[in-house]
Amino acid sequence: MSAMFEKIAVLGLGLIGSSICHGVKAQGLAKVVVGHAKSAETRKVALEIGLVSEVFENPADAVKGADLVILCAPVGACAALAAATGKYLREGAIFTDVGSVKGAIVRDCAPHLPLNVHFIPGHPIAGTEQSGPRSGFAELFHHRWCILTPVAGTDLAAIEKLTKFWEALGSNVDVMTADHHDLVLAITSHLPHLIAYNTVATAADLETVTDSEVIKYSASGFRDFTRIAASDPTMWRDVFLNNKEAVLEMLGRFTEELAVLQRAVRWGDGETLFNLFTRAREVRRGIIAAGQDTAAPNFGRDKS
Amino acid sequence: MSAMFEKIAVLGLGLIGSSICHGVKAQGLAKVVVGHAKSAETRKVALEIGLVSEVFENPADAVKGADLVILCAPVGACAALAAATGKYLREGAIFTDVGSVKGAIVRDCAPHLPLNVHFIPGHPIAGTEQSGPRSGFAELFHHRWCILTPVAGTDLAAIEKLTKFWEALGSNVDVMTADHHDLVLAITSHLPHLIAYNTVATAADLETVTDSEVIKYSASGFRDFTRIAASDPTMWRDVFLNNKEAVLEMLGRFTEELAVLQRAVRWGDGETLFNLFTRAREVRRGIIAAGQDTAAPNFGRDKS
Description:
2 copies of one chain form a homodimer.
Chain A: E1 5-11, H1 15-27, E2 30-36, H2 40-48, E3 54-56, H3 59-63, E4 68-71, H4 75-85, E5 94-97, H5 103-109, E6 118-119, E7 122-124, E8 145-148, H6 156-168, E9 172-175, H7 178-204, H8 211-216, H9 222-228, H10 233-242, H11 244-266, H12 270-289
Parallel strand pairs in A: 1-2, 1-4, 2-3, 4-5, 5-6, 8-9
Antiparallel strand pairs in A: 7-8
Helix pairs in contact in A: 4-5, 7-9, 7-11
């Protein structure tokens, strides 16, 4: 494929940023890819493993002349990056991000961006529990969805171009409002992470069961939760601080449902338990049929 | 290895029962392995794929002459199997099970068993989300733990023999009381399953987010929960009906911790969130160091 962009600036070189760099290089989507990272160590690694051709401490230096700028920082750091780079952006550039929350990104970034730049918030629904510049890989976005949340009036050609960019990285692309995105992700991502963190914390705080017992016997279910709970704490703190309303709504529903299950356990109501467990199984089948998870038992991890 | 047992009777030929059959054959642990299954279809499959040399509709026919009998049925079906087979057991036989709950098994099975039989409840901490006679494989128990919960006074030679049996299948073996087992498993297994089922049910019941959206965007966390929630509904109903006290205790603690997290979200208390998330990450490291999960990102399932 011929290069879609002259120069891509990736601001933040963690799991998502470094995966984009790998994917862009693998597909030849840009003539030049430059980066910015706050940490000197990350900047060093980024050059060492060839993520970018140049890396800058000051994000303003990275965005100059770029026709695509991608914010790949924790949600809470995005407004400062928009503020620091806004006046240096090239006319007609596409300015996007990969944050797990979209309403707050629009609210916090838009005021800093000039009107001659196409601001199209985005969110690739992909990731692993790992973080840092060495954790990325080009295939991270394959068969995953990327959601774009442009505001009304955004240039259609720019949306089309960013769509093609994500498709070239292997993703499917959906467009929706920022509000709907935040509601959908609150249930598919934010609630599961909060619940996973909470389950791990509950286990770690027991007096009657030792930490070493929890670890030894974790293959019985608990270990799945710990993978999610190993995700980057800064990123996740920012998600919960910036999608409060939707997360609280989902938490309320979760707690309500849990009260029903708890009552069924207390009263020995096997029928309620069995029916709910049977229904949950169907959702799993849907996810496998949609190609969003492996059908292999235990995610295929026990092949040894 | 020379055969440790003359004849092993496996009562119930689902995931665990069929995995034991495969492991016993692979290691040559018995001269003869026979089975019992309630369903005619399962009995047919068991012979077809060579799990056992003979299979019986009546469990009493299976246990005759066996020096090791292993109950591999849902917890709620174990008492009836003990009642049906007790008087046909060979003198000096070891009678064990694989149930996820131990207190109720001891309470319900022991009264049916003759005193000249060694009753040693057991629980291999291993499994997948799949079920049925075709789901088993010999390696299921490799590097996993198996917990035995013999009552005081149980013949030490019999415990030693059953320990060696599980070790030959690839497991490590621990011995503890049934009560402590039920508490440990309530946090490492029963609570995570209940929470996973509840999360899936919460998502399925939303009016504002469609089922197809939940499925499409599940790679952001939710899909991990659906694997656990795809486990056998009968087995799990029986677990919750038979480990009520410990599950309610863990649920109470979980809800308490969740209230703290929910409050932190509501009040924008980033420090509480960050600290808890950071602590959870450590537990994951412990599990990987103990060989109880893979260190590969996303459990290694995204290698494509």
